[in-house]
Amino acid sequence: MMHSFNAHTVLVVAALLFVLGLTGVLTRKNIIFMLISVEVMLNAAGLAFVAAGAQWHQPDGQVMFLFILAMAAAEISVGLALVLQIYHQHKTMDVEDLEELRDRPNEN
Amino acid sequence: MSELFYIATFVAVAATMLALTRLHPVHALLYLVVSFLAVAMIFLSLGAPFVAVLEIIIYAGAIIVLFIFVVMMLNLGKDTALQEKRWLQPRVWLIPSLLTLLLLVEMVLLLLRGSKAPMLVSVVAPRNVSLSLYGEYIIAVELAGFLLMAGVVGAAHIGKHTKKNLHRYLQEEEDIKQK
Lengths: 108, 179
Description:
Chain A is mainly α. Chain A has helices at 7-27, 31-55, 60-90. Chain B folds into 2 domains: 2-123, Four Helix Bundle (Hemerythrin (Met), subunit A) (Up-down Bundle), CATH 1.20.120.1200; 137-179. At the A-B interface, helix 1, helix 2 and helix 3 of A face helix 1, helix 2, helix 3, helix 4 and helix 5 of B.
């Protein structure tokens, strides 16, 4: 039999993609890049589900991927609307400038 | 099938790495398209053609187009790239990357201890997926419908660009503050 892959190899790939996305969320300060990283993480989670479904020859993994897809679409539309508003109100993409909710006891 | 899987894996990881390290947003998005296409190839080699097509249509189609529209509307170009260059210093990304790399190594060690039996890939047809989706998962489909509805209404409401409307008392206060 030819050299083949097992389910754990696919899960390692999913973990690799997830960690790449996580590193992106942790290191980038631009909101657009953070949203891109979140997309990569959701995609990796979906890959893990599909791999699990393929291992047992069941459609449930693919069904879960569909729900992740719907969630990602809703999340990204609201997230990008928020990005537009933030840019119109603050003229910046830097998450560290958005500190209006911070408690400042010494002011006033 | 396994050669397809390994090539697609290499392309997916490389393109994702490049996408997350680019400074220009449009370059990052283009690499992200490549990454999504490679993940669709992985799905195909796992015997999930329906999901592979959806990945291309929705991720590489709709979501990337949304991102590109926002980048165009906000006119993010060379200035953003310069700003990113200033923000992305090694002391910013080194420690988080090392920590997540450690977690990844632990995860991979755990995963490699599993069984070594090769995966018997068999195609799960779209027919089975849809029978399952509209059979046992019908409640979840309705909930996803609620979620999408709320997402559409929320995006339309948040994205509406209106002038700041102040109450007249607040307006007077603002005038006094400006004087």
